[in-house]
Amino acid sequence: MPCHQPCLPYELCRPDLLVAGLCCDEFYWRSSYHARVPSDRLITLKIDGEIAKGGRVPLDLLAEKIKAMQELILSAAQVVRPIFPKAKSKKNEPAQAKVTAKDACRLVFVNIRKNCLTLEAELPITEALFPEHVEWGLQSADRAGAVLWAIQQRDERRLADLVPDPARRLNLVRKAENLVPRGGDYTISLTTANQFIELTPQIDAYIDQLEAQLSVERRSDTRTITGEVYLLDSHYGEHGRVGIKVKGHYIVCDLGPDARGQIRDLSPGIIAEITGKADLTKTSKVRKITEAQYLRALGMEPLQWTRIVIGEKDFQLTRPLEVKVHFDNEGWTYEAKEFGIRGYGPLRRDAAHSFQEDFSSYWESIAQAPNETLTLDAQELKAALHSLVRTVGRAE
């Protein structure tokens, strides 16, 4: 673990002051956010072996591994990228600036400790209307650590769950490869709040094998797309075809035998979800569904929920909660206007899960807070939540 020796003065804590042979082999990044415990965001990286003997780590090696870790987190940000609500600026106010992965995930060093080379850094807290901007950086660091753990364990199923898209999975594996020890007999270990990862030179061969496998998988994969139906042709080819407009792109879906009978449920202009084998572009976008396996028409009627289950919580409601459903080029939105709760996601189930998470967060942060800590508006919202929720039980 990081040493607890007195820190150098803040004005000396800059990466450009690092010199060859400065102390030892360990440093850590600390990422913090006002809603998280800082120690939960702690990451330590340690170099062991002959190359670090006597606590003198070559500066070029140290710089290489720092860069590799940063690039891994930035790549993980593309996997956990949230769909941000469109912020409407008020009259005479500038529009909100677009937040990028670099804004959310760029590590900035704030301290260097002596006796062992310990570097502290924080993920930036961006000036944004939505907490997802900050949370994006934290989730990216979490996902990067989980990916390294799956590689260390040679757990390809877990890796696929963490990064479903083969192209993004291949990219993350390549970024992780840059952290693997090369050119010397040493190991690199990382410790986070959730796991311990040790990378050895021997794992390099496994990563080469994984890269070769993912390179083949990247061009063909099963995907789900959602969009507006613009074409129905039941007489085309052997089983028919459907055309879906997704974010301004017109995608043709050839139907497989299992989907042939489902075309009767669709009509032009409705929103539909189609799952099937996809032909992908180099950037992993769907060019065409070559064999659609499942078709489903998605209605936009408001939902009436009498129960919300999220994690271990089971909210039983006193009356049906109306949740409006909307779809556009940005994805799905679930919204309960009376409480100001919204959920967003590329798929309908993602938006539903996001809404349920936000509802639970409102219950914990507002409904359970003392009145003296809340504004008048928040106190009204607290009363409304207590009026809506009958019981909170443990989900089975």
Explain the overall architecture.
- It contains 8 helices and 16 strands.
- The chain is an alpha+beta fold.
- The strands form 4 sheets. The chain has a 5-stranded mixed β-barrel with strand order 7-8-9-11-10. Strands 12, 13, 14, 15 and 16 form a 5-stranded antiparallel β-sheet that branches. Strands 1-2-5-6 form a 4-stranded antiparallel β-sheet.
- Strand 7 (220-233) and strand 8 (241-246) form a beta hairpin.
- Helix 3 (132-152) packs antiparallel against helix 4 (156-162) and helix 5 (166-177) runs antiparallel to helix 6.
- It is flat.
- It starts with 25 loop residues before the first strand and ends with a strand.
Overview features:
396 residues; alpha+beta; 5-stranded mixed beta barrel; 5-stranded antiparallel β-sheet; 32% strand; flat; disordered N terminus
* Helix percentage: 25-40%
Number of β-strand runs: 16
Cα distance spanning the termini: 38 Å
The largest pleated sheet is described as: 5 strands, mixed, barrel
| Shape estimate | flat
Q: Count of DSSP helices?
A: 8
Structural class: alpha+beta
The largest sheet has its strands arranged as 7-8-9-11-10
The residue-averaged pLDDT reads 76
Radius of gyration in whole Å, from Cα?
A: 25 Å
State the low-pLDDT regions, or none: 1-38, 87-96
Strand content: 25-35%
Order of helices and strands: EEHHEEHHHEEHEEEEEEEEEHHE
